[in-house]
Amino acid sequence: MIILGVITARGGSKGIPGKNIKLLGDKPLIAYTIDSAKASKLLTDLIVSTDDPEIAEVCKKYGASVPFLRPKELAEDKTPHVPVMQHAVNFFEKEKNCKVDIVVVLQPTSPFRTGEDLDKTLEKLIETGADSAVSLVEISENHPMKIKKLEGDRVLSYCIEEVEGTRRQDLPTAYKRSGAVYAMTRETLMDKNKLYGDFITGFVVPRERSVDIDEPFDWIKTEYMLEKLKEKGYEF
Fold first, then answer.
1. Structural domains in the chain?
2. What percent of the chain stands above pLDDT 90?
């Protein structure tokens, strides 16, 4: 079985300039994702898809393969992940003269995934026969039962009715995608043009290691998390 990990790292971040190679602790942000991918026991291959030569050089320094520079038309602000991943798979299969079985999207913006997170998510995909598997994190705030909408002057439940008087700790457990791991079968990505498909399974990762860096405040939060995780004995 060929399981291809693709680190997607576009240049030109506007919210946090140079985000993917900005130093977090003692190494560039993207190096955390490279290290976790190298720690995986199930990934058979790893490549980086980037349009930025500087990002490419940093990735090579930390031991990741960058076999191409992504075309500009696949590196726009609103470019979705599907064509980016399809481009990477097509390039890899042609270069290696093979056909992958499973493809994994690895985003540098979730630096605290571990190799075990990656492998456990992949195991879920393989064992269940699902179309895709994602890492999940339990919601600690903004529970869906508390999300509202306005219709005229009326405040209404957005999707789930909130039972008046329900304590926060009594709300049903809810999850969201953590952003750390997105794994899918080749058929789902290449034939169905989807990342998820109809049957999605998931692996739950701890809240203390879950972050998806998008805005400057997220970076400050991530620096604080790194300090606390190291105090607990994590090695990143």
1. 3-137+174-229 (3.90.550.10), 140-173 (no CATH)
2. 89
